[in-house]
Write a structure and sequence with these properties.
By secondary structure, this protein is α+β, with helices and mostly antiparallel strands. The chain has 15 helices and 12 strands. About 40% of the residues lie in helices and about 15% in strands. Helix 1 packs antiparallel against helix 3. The longest helix is centred in the first third of the chain and has 19 residues.
């Protein structure tokens, strides 16, 4: 578990150190105390479970955008202390990914001493050691010694099911091509010899066949991959060094526009083609960013959040006595806050005026039950959606507000 206060204090120490280079926070005059409070506010976790709200006192929440950064900082902070204390048993080779470490030592004594120092460095960190003279896994790589030389190949956990994106699933064909290329690239990078690469390609083909990929489709992708990278048995290592070299990302200005389209098969592709050809007339290149929904998302195990926490919504208020008396509004914030604003005597609200004059609404002990969410939207479209719904439903309390009926955006229809 990441000790949140300790990590935040260390981040503050490093950023505001006199010897540290200038940063966004120091350049904009943000005080250390303010920076610390901001970071703490962003990393604290408040969650809902069994209709109860909880606050996590320590550690970072899974899924938090800051969680990987804070975890990495914590382990690096401990690692720095270990390096200073292990001068006599320093490893020959040392690589770490978050809390997974691969190291080579001069002797077993050095290995055991380093392991002891590592486990005593912090009470929140406990490492286990996997020792094997023949083969060791590190992330997705299996390392072993043969004839006095190190060899590497792809490693899969014993619990690996081999289940991939099925060929018959509703997904774009490019994603299926990319899946095979991704698996082949991993095999190419992790295999230390052409023979091991060939063995992994056979494993990949076997897995893909079990996921309903046609043999011809697989062979076509393998042939294209080996041809593009010029993979040859005689010059495997030489070509590998050239092909796996990291290319520097160059960001340039471009006129491409990406359109988010739900993928439901051929209709989605047809829609994109129509938009693409029409927009070309205006010198715009519209590319499709397809998205799909996993079946698991319909069966969430998380506690359902109350509608009162909904934001970017169009809502409707209905009178307790007469359901024909209603009001439509929008809010970008939480709807419970907008309900409290409507109930405030100081607010200039037709809902409050109605509540003040309607005895049935006054007798309602929980007025929030008279508010319902009509549509969810986003912060860019919520006002337009409100205008459309007001024009369609003509709520009585909005009509009293004059020409625009209290809409946040003016509705103009062109024919």
């Amino acid at each position: 578990m990441v000790p949140l206060d300790e990590v935040i204090n260390d981040i503050q120490r490093v950023i505001y150190s006199p010897s540290a280079p200038s940063s966004f926070f120091t350049n904009n005059g943000i005080a250390p105390r303010v920076f610390k409070n901001m970071l703490k506010l962003c990393s604290e976790s408040i969650f809902l479970y069994n209709d109860n709200v909880y606050k996590q006192h320590d550690g970072v929440a899974m899924g938090s955008p800051l969680a990987p950064l804070l975890a990495e900082w914590f382990v690096a902070m401990v690692e720095e202390q270990v390096v200073q204390q292990s001068t006599s048993c320093k490893p020959i080779f040392y690589k770490r990914y978050v809390d997974d470490i691969f190291a080579i030592f001069h002797s077993i004594t050095d290995r055991d001493n380093f392991f002891t120092i590592l486990n005593n460095a912090h009470q929140n960190l406990t490492f286990t050691m996997d020792v094997n003279k023949s083969k060791l896994p590190f992330l997705d790589v299996s390392v072993y010694i043969k004839n006095g030389k190190y060899n590497t190949q792809v490693y899969r956990k014993p619990t690996n099911t081999g289940v991939l994106m099925n060929f018959n699933c509703e997904a774009h064909i490019k994603w299926k091509h990319s899946l095979i290329r991704c698996l082949l690239m991993r095999a190419y990078r992790n295999s230390s010899s052409f023979y091991l690469f060939q063995m992994e390609v056979k494993n990949i083909k076997s897995i893909l066949l079990k996921n309903a990929y046609p043999d011809q489709f697989i062979e076509g992708n393998i042939s294209k991959f080996t041809s593009d990278l010029k993979i040859d048995e005689n010059q495997f290592k030489q070509n590998k060094c050239t092909n796996t070299k990291e290319n520097q990302l160059v960001v340039t200005e471009f006129d491409d526009v990406y359109l988010n389209i739900p993928y439901i098969g051929k209709p989605s592709e047809k829609l994109h083609r129509k938009i693409y050809h029409r927009m070309r007339k205006y010198y715009l290149c519209v590319k499709a960013a397809y998205n799909t929904v996993k079946v698991g998302s319909y069966f969430s195990l998380k506690s359902k959040c109350s509608n009162l926490f909904g934001s970017n919504v169009v809502y409707k208020f209905t009178c307790s006595r007469d359901e024909n008396i209603s009001y439509l509004g929008e809010t970008k914030g939480h709807i419970f806050k907008r309900i409290s604003e409507h109930s405030d005597r100081k607010s200039d609200s037709p809902v409050f005026d109605h509540l003040f004059n309607c005895k049935d609404c006054q007798n309602n002990s929980n007025i929030s039950t008279r508010f319902s969410i009509l549509k969810h939207s986003n912060k860019y479209n919520v006002r337009s959606l409100e205008s459309l719904l007001i024009a369609k439903l003509s709520p009585t309390l909005n009509i009293q507000l004059g020409k625009f009926r209290g809409a946040g955006a003016k509705l103009v229809l062109y024919s």
